[in-house]
Structures are given as structure tokens and as C-alpha cells.
Design brief:
By secondary structure, the chain is of the alpha+beta class. It has helices at about 10-20, 50-60, 70-75, 80-85, 100, 105-110, 125-130, 140, 160-175, 240-260, 295-300, 310-315, 360-365, and strands spanning about 1-5, 25-30, 45, 65-70, 90, 120-125, 145, 155-160, 185-190, 195-205, 205-220, 225-235, 270-275, 285-290, 305, 325, 330-335, 355, 380, 385-390. The longest helix is centred in the middle third of the chain and has 21 residues, at about 240-260. The two termini are about 35 Å apart.
């Protein structure tokens, strides 16, 4: 089997690591990929290609399966273009990808189909938003402010401070120096409880519960600092328990897939449910993502038991796939970031430093038993052999 992975982050690095071990995989292409992926024997990093070129490349190389990592190419219709050429692809079409592409669309979808989520309001300009939040009990109950479109995990602010809320509205909707920009804003009630990311693999009304992980979003300890793309993650095989999993499937997964089919947006691919679980063990949807998460992929791939590539290939073709599941082992993921991350105002990160890792010690388990190293935000140093940090 030949697989094409779209993306260049830690998620795609973890996919490549998993596929590289599987006997049925002959070749793994990655676009754009990064220099660190060359450590995998079956991987060929093909660099950045346009959407049209990705379709042509898949056809010319006889790619059997395309796995789309990030959300942006899904929202711009890469899965549609690939499927139109008869290429098997893991990822929803552009219409279904609006579950992540527009936070406002997803909230209105949940409201329409009776899927539990926080109370919310939508404002279509800065003045209305500024006026609207005056009635929100921010100091007592808090407020969640979300930019409507994609923002790389940086378009959400949770605050109990009215001044910070007003400042956030100005930054997201007016301030030209801030990278996060939106013409419409979503205001939500803060949901208390424990946050968890749940993953299912869906094809129409059929789905497989893959597992769950807990992602640490805030930059600093004690849930302080700005939101990031993820600072770390853990998987506990005992949680969610059976009762909670049953609620998630019955109250959220099934109504979501049924609603998408009813709206003519049948869903195929990974579905990421960002949930909040309250004191009564009841789940509420914080957000949908239309792909596997990062760092959750790096947390779950090491404990995934089974031939993942063959499973995906069979599942997407409606065959009865060989089973996969998660091992009864815990997994903890820790992120090392570049200084200055995350940059919201465009200020530069501290990049270009050589990354020094004792790969031999890592492989032998000298650093930590069963330790793995995944790369993201790295590239090859053009002056000498090795990798440098090139992103967050």
C-alpha cells in the first residue's frame, strides 16, 4: 500500500511513525512534511504542493490512501477533489468540514439537532458584541469568546474579567496587529467540569470509537496564559468509563452523524469531539474538529494496537476491517516549544537553533522507558547536518 500524508506537524510525524512499522505499507509520501521525517525508512518527504498538484501526484504515484492531517485543506475541499478522481481519502468533504471551519455553524447545528452544548449568542460586528456582553455576568460566571473561523487553537479566550473580554473583542474584530481576525464573534457560557478530547472514525452513520485523551491548551501551569495548539496531553485507559462513553455515543456521536446525513453533509473521516464533562458525568460539546488532534495523535498512536493502515483502507471501502483498539497502558505527552510561542501579535519566535537529541539513548530507553520522540516545527539546517527549530 502507498499512503500520502498531508501535513507537517507532530500529528503527521506520529502517523508516519505508525504506518512505517506496518508490513502492508510499501511507501509513505508526506506533503509538505519536514526534515525530521526522513528518519523513517519508508518515508519520502515531497515538499509543499498545491491542491491541484496533490491530486495529480496521488494519481501518478498510484497512491492507495490519502490521510489528511490538518483542517485547512479539508475546508478548502481537498477531499472532494481527491474523491472525484477515485482516490481513497480519509477526511470529510468541504461541506462537512464546516463543523470546524465555522464555530458559528457548528453551534447552530448542535442547537438544531439537540446536541448538548453551552448556551451561546452570535454577534455580527464589534459594536453589537461590545454592547451584547454587557448583559453577561462575566465576573461571576465567566465568558468564552471565540473567533468564527480557523485560528490554530489561538482564537478562543476564556475570562472572568470584563476588561479582558472587551480587549479580546477589540483584538479579534478590529486590531490590525493581531493575527486572529473574525467578522462574527461567538460568545458562550463557561462550562465547568473536566475537558476531554474524544475521537471516532465515521463513515455515514457507521462509526468506531477510537479513544480519548486530555489536552492541556493553556501555555502555562495551573491553566494560565494564552491558548495554544496544545502543550501536552495524556491518555488514561480507565477514563472515560463505560457509562460516560455510552452517553457520548448516544447523546453526541449518533445525533451528530444523523444530523449531518439529514443535511446532505454525510461525514467520512476522523471526528474530534472536544467535550466538557460536568459533575453529574454528563458530556457537553465544546467544539468539533474534523481531523485527528495534535498532540492527541502523538499520545494515542503509541498505544494503538492493530494494523492501522489496513483498518483504514478496509473501513473506508465498507469492508469488515480487522479490529484495532487502544492498549491498557497510560500515555503521557509533553511539548517543548520555541521561545515566544504562541505569538498572537506577529512578534517573531526564537528560531533557528540546532536540535540536539541523543537518538541512541532514546532508542535504548535510557531517557525513559518506552519513550518516543515526535517532531513538529522543525526543518533541516541548510548549513550542516541536523535539525533546527523552525516553528512553535
Amino acid at each position: 500500500m502507498k499512503i500520502l500524508i498531508i501535513g507537517s506537524g507532530g500529528r503527521e510525524d506520529a502517523f508516519a511513525w505508525k504506518f512505517n512499522q506496518e508490513s502492508g505499507v510499501e511507501k509513505i509520501f508526506v506533503s509538505p512534511g519536514h526534515g525530521g521525517m526522513k528518519r523513517f525508512s519508508k518515508v519520502e518527504v515531497v515538499g509543499k504542493l498545491s491542491q491541484e498538484d496533490l491530486v495529480d501526484f496521488s494519481t501518478e504515484q498510484g497512491v492507495d490512501l490519502v490521510v489528511i492531517g490538518p483542517e485547512a485543506p479539508l475546508i478548502t475541499g481537498l477531499a472532494d477533489d481527491l474523491k472525484a478522481k477515485g482516490i481513497l481519502v480519509l477526511g470529510p468533504n468541504a461541506q462537512a468540514a464546516q463543523l470546524e471551519g465555522s464555530k458559528i455553524f457548528s453551534k447552530q447545528f448542535m442547537q438544531k439537532h439537540g446536541i448538548p452544548t453551552a448556551d451561546f449568542e452570535v454577534y455580527d460586528n464589534y459594536e453589537n458584541a461590545l454592547s451584547g456582553i454587557k448583559k453577561w455576568p462575566i465576573e461571576g460566571e465567566g465568558i468564552v469568546i471565540k473567533a468564527d473561523g480557523l485560528a490554530g487553537g489561538k482564537g478562543v479566550v476564556v475570562t472572568w474579567n470584563r476588561e479582558e473580554a472587551e480587549k479580546t473583542l477589540y483584538e479579534f474584530m478590529v486590531d490590525p496587529t493581531i493575527q486572529v481576525k473574525t467578522s462574527e464573534i461567538l460568545i458562550e457560557k463557561v462550562l465547568p467540569g473536566e475537558e476531554v478530547s474524544v475521537f471516532v472514525l465515521a463513515h455515514g452513520l457507521d462509526f468506531l470509537y477510537l479513544g480519548a485523551a486530555c489536552d492541556h491548551k493553556r501555555l502555562n501551569d495551573e491553566d494560565r496564559g494564552p491558548n495554544t495548539g496544545g502543550m501536552g496531553c495524556f491518555y488514561d485507559p480507565q477514563w472515560p468509563d463505560f457509562s460516560l462513553r455510552e452517553k457520548i455515543e448516544e447523546r453526541i456521536v449518533k445525533p451528530t452523524l444523523k444530523g449531518m446525513v439529514a443535511e446532505g453533509k454525510g461525514y467520512t473521516g476522523f471526528l474530534f469531539l472536544g467535550l466538557m464533562v460536568d459533575q453529574h458525568n454528563d458530556p457537553y460539546v465544546v467544539e468539533y474538529n474534523v481531523r485527528f488532534g495534535d498532540p492527541e495523535t502523538q499520545t494515542l498512536m503509541p498505544v494503538l494496537d492493530g494494523d492501522f493502515s489496513t483498518f483504514l483502507f478496509d473501513f473506508l471501502q465498507g469492508r469488515n476491517p480487522s479490529p484495532i483498539g487502544l492498549k491498557n497502558q497510560a500515555s503521557v505527552h509533553v511539548v517543548a516549544t520555541s521561545s515566544g510561542y504562541p505569538t498572537l501579535d506577529g512578534s517573531p519566535l526564537d528560531l533557528g537553533h540546532k536540535i540536539q537529541v541523543d537518538d541512541g539513548a532514546l532508542r535504548k530507553g535510557d531517557l525513559c522507558e518506552n519513550a518516543l520522540l515526535f517532531y513538529a516545527g522543525v526543518n533541516e539546517d541548510p548549513r550542516e547536518r541536523g535539525l533546527i527549530n523552525s516553528g512553535g
